[in-house]
Design goal:
The protein has 6 helices and 4 strands, in the order βαβαβαβααα. The protein is an alpha/beta fold.
Length: about 120
Amino acid sequence: MQALNPALSIIVPMLNESEQLAELLAHLQEWQQRGCEVLLVDGGSNDSSVETAQVQGFNVLHSPCGRGKQMNTGAAQAQGNAWSFCMPIRACLSMPMYRFLQHYNNAVGAALISSYLATVGC
């Protein structure tokens, strides 16, 4: 039996985000446990961002520095039927996408997610 792709891949480009990462990782762990794919893409941090994410059980992809390059790296690895890019991290904690994820239910289809993302301009 073939495994189903996750409904949603959350791609998080990061660079030197150690001070703001803990709160977001705690939230993203909940969605990872519910079946969402979470891809953290580091652009060459020289702080403890990568280690912080790894200690929390996240795999971290590595990319050349640059948000677009990091987004492309994450997108190339994403397995979800829909993608969400969460950036910058400090804004993700107050943006509509964060609030949407708080109410996200795995039973929601990828089409609804895509419609929502288009509506809020993601």
